[in-house]
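Researcher: Here's the sequence for the chain we discussed earlier.
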Amino acid sequence: MRVLLIGANGYLGRYVADRLLADPAVQLTALGRGDDADVRFDLATGSPGALTRFLDAVHPGVVINCAGATRGGARELTRHNTVAVATVCESLRRSGCGARLVQLGCAAEYGPSQPGSSTAEDAVPRPGGPYGVSKLAATELVLGSGLDAVVLRVFSPVGPGTPAGSPLGRLAEAMRRAMQSGDSELKLSGLGVQRDFVDVRDVARAVHAASLSAAQGVVNIGTGRAVRLRDAAGVLARVAGYGGAIHELDAPQQPHAHPGRPPGLAAIGSPRAEATAEQLAAAAPPYPYPDGCGTWQQADVRTARDRLGWRPRINLEESLADIWMEAACRI
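Model: Thanks. This is the structure I predict for it:
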C-alpha cells in the first residue's frame, strides 16, 4: 500500500510516520514544507493543479493529512488549517488515483462540553475560538467532498515530544525549573481544567487503523476519561521525584490580562519570576488551554472501538514519564 503522508515533521506526523514505516506493507512518501520531506510542497500556497499532478504520478492508495497550525491569528489558522485542506480535497477529486483520505481533526471543533459528559461524534460542534473554527471548516470540507474519507477528531495528545508551549509541556518545564533552582513550592494557575489526554503513539495507531479501514465520517480519538490538570501535576511530581508543595492559584477571567504572558500555566518562585500570587492570578487567563473548550472535555470513544478496532494502550503516567524524561535532560 502506497501512502502519502502530509505533515510528517509535525508533532503527530512524526509518530504517524514511525508507525507506518514499521508496517512492511506500506510504501511511504512524505510531503511537506521542510527540506527533509520526500517532496516539498506548501499546502497553504500551492495550487490544487500542482498537487493533482503529483498524486497522478505517485498514485497513492491513502493520503493522510497531519499538517496544520495550532497557533497564530485567524487568517493564518484559516490558511494552514482550512485552505490547505480545500487544496487536498480538490486535488483528490481531480486526480485519478482514487486515494482514501485520513484527515486529522481535533476536539476543539466541539467547543465547551457539559462537565461530566462524554462528547460523541453526533454532538453539535460549537468551537470557542479561531483554531477550532478553522479545523471544523476543514472537517466540513472533507465530509462534503464526496471522497472516501474519515476525520479523526483527536482530543488532547500527550507523550514524548509534547510541545514546550502546551499545558503539560509548560507544567514539566515549570517543575524542571523549580527542581533546578531548589524551590520547595510550585505555584500554578488553571489546574482545575479537565481534558481527555491520549498518548501520541496511540493516536498514530489510530491513524494506521483508519487508513486500513472502511470507516467514514468523524471518529473520536481519546481515552474516554477526563483528567484534571491538578491530578496530572501530582503524577508528574511523583514521576519526577519532586517533593515540593504544589499550590494552585485561582485564575479568574480578567479583561486586562498581561499581554506578554503566554496563555496557560504560570509558575513563580524562580529568581526571574517574582510576581505575587495575587498579581499572577489577575494576569493569568481563566483556562490554560487556548482551544476555547472551557473547563471540561471527555471523548466518547465507542465509534473508534467499533469501527476501527482501536483502543488506547498507553496510560497517562507513562506519557508523563516520557514528557519528564525530555524535560529532565535540560536540568
